[in-house]
Structure prediction request, 327 residues.
Amino acid sequence: MVKDTTNCIRLSKLLSHDSANLTLSRRQAERHIRDGQVTLAGKVVTIPQTLVAFDEISSFSAKNSSPLLKLKGKPVIFNPSSSITSSSSSSTDNHQHERSIKVWAVHKVSGEVVAENDPHNRPSLMERLQRSGVGKSRKGGKLHLKPIGRLDIPTEGLMLITNDGDFSREMELPSNKLHRIYRARVHGRLTSYKLDRIRKGGIEFDNVRYSAMKVAIEKPKRSNKPTSTNTWLKVTCTEGKNRQIRNVFKALGLTVTRLIRIQYGDYKLDTIPAGMAIPIPYKAVSYQKAKGQLYIPSNKNKNTGTDNKDNKKTQTATPVKWISSVQ
Prediction:
């Protein structure tokens, strides 16, 4: 068990994101692990959430000729841009590397899978972007694009795409606590008790424990009926676990009938048309402001009108402006 999780990544994410010779979705990677088809340092691993430390991978690779990770007996090769295989470089090299990082903001539509090569031949966001020319250079070359995180099939909204494995991993690491903000339409009887449970965290569903999330009821429109059992909420989380918001509400007897991601870190969906991809500037995680421990006001603070100013600062985001061209 890894004690310090600062520089760790889940095994399932490592297989689906940092591998150069595999094209797996997160769900496919999890299935292979549960079926006992993945070995780590010669031992079979069956838990997808197993944390792998980058330092251990590097030291193992240096001392052993046998690959650290294998899938069905075949070695897993890491991307050259991955933090696992990359070495430290000078500040000049870092600057040049940052200039080469490309990022796109995509408005994912409901019904699309994010991963390529879907075994069920469902519409794929990544394949659609490649067909439309996203990632092609002026010289006709083609960048290897990676999604930053995932959205499940019914979920809409902001997806970030990049050509850099390091940036993708940094954006996803739970230890960086980047804010993921959603609009969620919830069906069922929503009570103050249930909202408090979500804000306190610790809800479990299918043996997965979820941390606290910030949740607020959106101001209802005049057209909404007072007796309506559908409520629009604004939900903020920092973990990015698979189906996190849907599972938390389901554990409380509520159903998320529509889910739209509107922000990830400092990147915002704004008015990007559905299905459109827009190139946007790269912004290092260290410079992004929409991150850190979520500020969730207590009942005491509500009554007195006082706020925790230090925590409240982490809620202020500096949005990344678009580039006007559209692909």
In short: DSSP finds ten helices and 17 strands in the chain. Residues 8-75 form a domain with the Structural Genomics Hypothetical 15.5 Kd Protein In mrcA-pckA Intergenic Region; Chain A fold (CATH 3.10.290.10).
